[in-house]
Amino acid sequence: MAARDGPVTGYPVPNPPPPGVAYPYTAPTNNAYYNDQNSNPYYQSEPDNVRHAIWLRRVLAFFIALVIIFAAIVFIVWLVHRPQLPQFRVNSLSLSNFSLSNTSLVSFSSDVNLTALNPNKKMTVHYDQLGANLFYELWSLSETMVPPFTQGTRNETSFSVRFVAAGSFLDWSATDGVRSDLRSDGEIGLNLRIVSRSQFQDKAWRTRWRLLKVFCGDLIVRFTRSNSSSSSGLLVSPMQCRVEI
Fold first, then answer.
1. To 5 degrees, how large is the angle CA 172–CA 174–CA 178?
2. Which pTM was predicted?
């Protein structure tokens, strides 16, 4: 049997394209993206996100500007007032009935007179909870409290501190040092420390309470010779103190 031309089985191709031309192709429409946006109630369009970011940036910039303005005001106030530290000086110091037993027990009474100067033109100074301590080198001999007081502007205030020791134990090293100093030149060196809460204040502004430290070192006390078991001594010369806050 002779072969036939053309297709024998299947369906005829309707309207075939001309030779050299491919079948037309239509891209499917992806409606899933749009359907997801419309069906998601929490979806926010791009303009809403931009407005939210701009609002956050403005709030942050406002708070930063507020902090900078506050810091500038505090700095300007500090420059205008600029409180100066007070000055302290030991005017006199006396030791009475000083005795040191063989068992390293020390007894004495001491009166110290000091002057405090407030150099500020606009600010008063308040002193509270003043604690004073008298030392021989690093060893404490006696401690006491000082009544609180207030200094006006450009004011000098004199006050006294009294120390008493009655049979207080003193470290053996300190005992040997005191005896050696008295034998060599009849003098001993004492140190005075005062710690106080302090506050600077004017009519419109005041600082917070801060710890003021006063250290008066190298207070040379010269003793008079005595035949009794106790002796007395006086400060050789006034001494300026170091003040820190």
1. 120
2. 0.68
What is residue 206's DSSP assignment?
B
Q: Give pLDDT, residue 74.
A: 73
Give the model's confidence band at 8: pLDDT under 50 very low, under 70 low, under 90 confident, else very high. Answer: low
The pair of three-digit structure tokens given for residue 91, joined into one six-digit string: 């005017």
Distance (Å, whole) CA 112 – CA 89: 11
Please give the Cα distance from 134 to 188 (Å, whole number): 13
Quick count: other Cβ atoms within 10 Å of Cβ 227? 5
Helix (H), strand (E) counts: the chain: 3, 11
Concatenate the DSSP letters of all residues of 141-192 into one string.
Answer: EEEEEE--EEE-TTEEEEEEEEEEEEEEE--HHHHHHHHHHHHHHSEEEEEE
Q: How far apart are CA 157 and CA 241, in angstroms?
A: 15
- 191, amino acid identity: N
